Amino acid sequence: MSGSVNRVILVGNLGKDPEVREFPDGTKQAKVSLATSESYKNKNGEPVESTEWHNLVFRRRLAEIVQLYLKKGHKIYVEGRIKSRSWEQDGQKRYTTEIEVDQLTMLESKKTDSYSQGTPPSGSPTEHDVPI
């Protein structure tokens, strides 16, 4: 098999309200932290819960949807790609790894709402529903 695959699927709860930025060209970006947890028993048979935190980035239409509908504690399903980046700050090289989300499903609404980058399904918010 040639090529490679960079695909991530996560289900978890938002650790904080989304942080949304609007750029000069009008596009938006939303960032949230997502907690995923697993439970298991250690070698002594005691229950242990382990939580991982993931940095999620939503762009354009998905960022607008996140801004409108997601809050701390909401449970979501996301698909996307792992992206790593680095920068200089105070003379130190900094690194971060993020999940660039291209598919979102909200798991706590009365009906499950699913959104993909670019083409929201029918019944989802339209452009005029989004505050500018």
Question: What is the architecture at the second tier of CATH?
Answer: Beta Barrel
Low-confidence stretches: 119-132
CATH topology: OB fold (Dihydrolipoamide Acetyltransferase, E2P)
On the 0-100 scale, what is the average pLDDT? 85
Task: Describe the protein's architecture and organization.
With 132 residues, the chain is mostly beta strands. The protein has a single domain, classed as OB fold (Dihydrolipoamide Acetyltransferase, E2P) (Beta Barrel), CATH 2.40.50. The chain has one helix at residues 60-69, and strands spanning 8-14, 19-22, 28-41, 47-59, 75-89, 92-106, 113-116. Strands 1-3-4-6-5 form a five-stranded mixed barrel. Strand 5 (75-89) and strand 6 (92-106) form a beta hairpin. The longest helix is centred in the middle third of the chain and has 10 residues, at 60-69. The termini are far apart. The model is unreliable at 119-132 (pLDDT under 50).
